[in-house]
Amino acid sequence: MTIETLVAQYGLPAIFLGAGLEGETVAILAGVIAHSGTLGFWPTLVTVALGSFVADQIFFLCGRFFRQARFVRRVSQRPLFAKALAAFEKRPVLFTFGFRFIYGFRTVSPIAIGTTQLSTARFLLINALAAATWALVFVSAGYWFGNGIEAAFGQLRLHHRLLACLAGAVLFVAALAVWTRRRWMPKRL
Length: 189
What we know:
Residues 23-143 form the VTT domain. By secondary structure, the chain is mainly α. It is 80% helix and 0% strand.
């Protein structure tokens, strides 16, 4: 069975789960897959947005209703949890919209927001708008990156292109992680 067949058969459910659990790398890779023509751009975009939206709603609800659960207590002890709460207190709507764009805050932030007084309905609305915007940015980047791969590597088979794109996406996310960590983590003496 070829990669093309696997993606055609299981592509959207796998992308849904990946967008919810991992994030940027999957969203960019999904854009590359859409570029290849294996999946349509709009179904891929909607699937990535839904995966991100559902995962963040679940994390928010964990923070709201399961504060004493081991998972939530463990997450709340991370230094980023306190930073997320502090950023939320300064600009609640802006932070709620933008946390998914800050590498490292993706899982911690909706849990932290769930422990605040922000209403579930308001989080749902902001989360939906943010997930759609986030998916559009990252899937489109992958789609455009797919054009670059096609031009640079010509007629390589799909799995070679996907491996090259995955390597590029991993490098991009790693660079973003280093930059974000330096920006948000306290400096050690």
